[in-house]
Amino acid sequence: MDTKRVVADFEDWREAVAEAVALLEDGGVVALPTETVYGLAADAFNAEAVAKVFEVKERPSFDPLIVHIGHKRDLELVAKVPEELDEIVDELMATYWPGPLTLVLPKKEDVPDLVTSGLETVAVRMSSHEVMRAVAREIPVAAPSANRFGRISPTSADAVMEELGGKIPMVIDGGACRDGLESTIIAPEMSEKGPILRLLRPGPISREDLRKIAKVIRPKKTKADHIEAPGQVESHYAPATPLVVIDKPADFVPEEGVKYGLLSYRGEGNSSLMEATDWAHVEIMSPGKGKLAEGAVRLFYCLRNLDAAGVDVIVSESVSETGIGVAMMDRLRRAAAGSKK
Ligand code: TXA
Ligand code: MG
Q1: What is the pTM assigned to this prediction?
Q2: What is the CA radius of gyration of the chain?
């Protein structure tokens, strides 16, 4: 299959959107840009179309998808918000939608079981990317990241082509993703002391951001076969090249004859690992002012470059676990876990 690449530029992205909507209405799949990572979308209410997403991604059916809506009022099409959570859900939507926050809520019967992997809950978000939002306004879509299962999420149309080129009919090229890491996933719940937010996946909306709204708790680690906090399959976001994350520079002892690549946070002058060996390839997450947000945007891009550089081992520095640094370290640790296999 030829994958048609349509560039959504400022003037005529509407045309690209119309083409994507037509494909989706016809039961097809389309890769679309969002502010986090590119998604592979299908009509959320068409189980056959959703099955194609699993097939194309080679994704196991126990890993549920996120439904993207285009209007806040469309939440009721996919989820049933319990009365006791009305207020907190309204506040979360008012504060963070459209944006990189996914809410896990009890699902409406109409949502196919395949979307939720048979769970009684559904994950929903409203993207702030105008292309995804324009599509979702016409047709709510189930869309996981547009990568093969377990691999690095794509943050550009080039990366989508690397992952799924030839397997899907169309990708809308909306440029590089603004955030670069997948959305924060939370499950709002009512406790005796008031609402709490269970943080299922750290992301661009940080724990500190969420704390302003309600108490945040991080569920205990779950096993892959107990997918209550999914996306949380240990090995995920993995390059094909083995990756190690080094917390203390002294922990890195290079072996003779091994070609190492370095994923550095800030690079020359700000890296304790730079001098540790003769790196065959170096990628710097934040070559600018050394901000975590810049590192987050570039993390998957840099990992992809390192994976393509032909090194034997990728060595990553760790970043401080504050704000989006929590999500960055989450992805790096999973990438390391996945690459060991
Ligand atoms: O930023 C994002 O969220 C991107 C863009 C494309 O929107 N999407 C994304 O989808 O990251 P995906 O499939 O790669 O990750 C979705 C995660 C999965 O790990 C899934 O297990 C979790 O959301 N999830 C989906 N439904 C859930 C549910 N009912 N309860 C808990 N977690 C759920
Ligand atoms: Mg994914």
Answers
A1: 0.93
A2: 20
